[in-house]
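Q: Study each token:
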Amino acid sequence: MLAPPCRLYCLLKRAQMLLLGLGIAYLMAGSILLLQRSSIRVTQPNLASLPPLLSLAAPPTALRPAGLGVRTRSRWASVQPQSGGGAKASRHWPASQRLGVQHLHRRWFHSLLPESPEQRAPLHSRHKGTYIGCFLHNASDRALGGTMLYDLRKMTSSLCQDTCSESGYQFAGLEYGAECHCGNRISSSRAAEEDCSLVCRGERGSPCGGVGRLSIYKVEEQLPGHRKFKNVHHRGCFKLPNSTISTFPVSSFQPNLTTQSCVETCTDKELPLAVFKKPHCFCTWTSSLFSLNQQCVGDTGLNLTSSSTHTAAPELDHYQVYHTPVLDSRCKERMFLPQRSSSLVALSSFPGAGNTWVRHLIELVTGYYTGSFYFDGTLYNRGFKGEKDYWKSGRSISVKTHESGQKEIEMFDSAILLIRNPYRSLMAEFNRKCAGHLGHATDVQLKSKEWPEFVSSYAPWWASHALSWLRFGRRLLVVHYEELQMALVPQLRLLTAFLNVSMTEERLFCAQSNQDGHFKRSGGQRPSFDPFTPDMRQMIDPFILTVDQALKSRNFSGVPQEYLPR
């Protein structure tokens, strides 16, 4: 009679020991994981009084190793509003503590990013410039004041130097191992070399800055007149009084003055505007003097690369004005909305319609970050800080989305509907899928079976996306990509009025002078054949007509004439 109770007792005792063993194993595994996560080393001696690490703003979710081209929803963003109190408290910390927290946050975020193939094996430095040294670079002492470029995965000294050289700068500086700064003069004092101990995310073996420190290189010298500039734009012909011209900070007299040499002069002086009238070249900052109502009548653009000496209009007070590659310091100032907005504004488009480019323009012209319904690590790495913000936070001026379902559309109070020629949209999206945001699909990829399959599935989506937003959208502004290209200023005025943001002339200059940014795909590489077959066109053309009719039925102007089949 005692055998069953004894067996039951032994069984329970074994189960108890098994549960105890599992509990010990669980605790050991947790301890190992905690030790791994706490392996961040802080070299600053003044971090002892920092608040606990948990008070830092939550970092973004680790990116998928499969590649950055995949758009993913940010899973951590749903808890972001809870960190508001900590953000306010951090404003009262001493500067040294804020620097330490910034260091921790950078190191923590970098540790979450998967290593790129370039980082798994040591790389040799391939830069052509000369290393100058480590310099201070913070809010009060900025070593370089020119263009900035972000790439938290693949930044190298070569990439930074090439970017600065192409923008007309003489110095390139790297910070945090991932940020590139350009300039033509170093405006801060040297720092200890050990302060620039971080390695580049895409290259090992070269100094890549530190926290508030720049590793500065002198880029390869180019002969005068042979420097090639990006982001140089002809602002126009302006009528300016001679008394005003005399107050400009830089002036030069050159008998053989050309447009190229004047732009070079002003770029070297780190001034954003070159004011040209042979034989005089003036350099200055942007101001209300260069508003549209001051332009000459019948103004035409000029060719920068031409070596011919241009004379302006016959009047003595007419000058040709160019935007140099130097970005006005005011153009770099961007922030989240100072007060959370209760109204969500969508920036909706079919993939490949230029959503990233329009976001870049909106941020330049308003000074506020744009958000995203997704989390695209590539865009965040290149400076779109709103990517990691929760899309419903109300802190962004607008929110990128490609969604076209009724439920998703009705979550927004208003929307900017961006439409692009479907042939170009399809081509742009296929390029992105094959070669990233800036690359191009090869002829081999366009001749593969993937291309017709892509067109057959995506072309109907181009139409359904526009039709759904026209049907379910509450308050819409329709913007055509091609019209934004041809008439940038009037379209930007419409955008800012719709967003209920006042646009200053200075901000308008920002958008005009850096309208391409670092995310506009080069138009140089084209397929050697027409990738759209007659069958594809027979499928796409009716979609264009359908969207055109839907636009007109909602009292919008129809699609541009170039869309319509001939």
Q: What stands out?
A: Residues 185 and 518 are 23 Å apart (CA to CA). The first strand starts at residue 130 and ends at 136. The radius of gyration is 28 Å. The first helix runs from residue 3 to 37.
